[in-house]
Amino acid sequence: MESEKWKPEWYGAECAEPDYPKGIKWTKQRKYVYQVLERASEPLSAQQIYLQVMEQAGQENFALSTIYRILATFEENHLVSGTTWMGEDTVVYELERGGHTHYAVCLECHKRIPLHSCPFNFGHFGHRHGEHGDAEEDELSGFTVVGHKVELYGYCDKCRKNVVSAE
User: Fold this and answer.
1) Calpha distance 162→154 (Å, rounded)
2) From CA 50, how far away is CA 166, in angstroms rounded?
3) Domains, the chain, ranges and CATH?
4) Which is nearest to 18 in space by CA: 39, 3, 4?
5) 152 contacts 102 by C-beta, under 8 angstroms
6) Strand pairing class (91-95; 112-114)
7) CA dist., res. 78 & res. 63, Å (int)
8) Closest by alpha carbon to 106, among 43, 159, 162, 27?
9) Tens digits of per-residue pLDDT, 33-43?
10) Is 144 exposed, middle or buried (0-12, 13-18, 19+ CB in 10 A)?
């Protein structure tokens, strides 16, 4: 009979592991990646996740390829979504939290500022007579939206001041 892993007496509900989503086996490596994504304030690349996992894991050693495999498993199980920013080739990942977030992205420092509301709350396009030509109306009629991505590009307050003073 295997012995249970020892836990100190003070180990209580506030120290217990979080409830991980059901459906996949939760290895130590997967838990580390999930915890990094859960704490992230913006989407992270696999490299950024890897660096944070290595910092969190201490002496344990993980390969970057392991992080990619874990992220692929998470995507297959709809735990994370991956996207790329305009002008970048790197995929960034964030936990699926039942909604979605749009970002304003600074072109100078690349800071990503989450938008607190979605500008698009619709499910399909209907006829809007008089706004467009008949061909466009026919093409969009009945089009059902199943997803969208909005990124606003410009300069954050700090960089805007630097750009203005440089001109």
Assistant:
1) 13
2) 37
3) 1-97 (1.10.10.10)
4) 39
5) yes
6) unpaired
7) 23
8) 159
9) 999 999 988 88
10) exposed
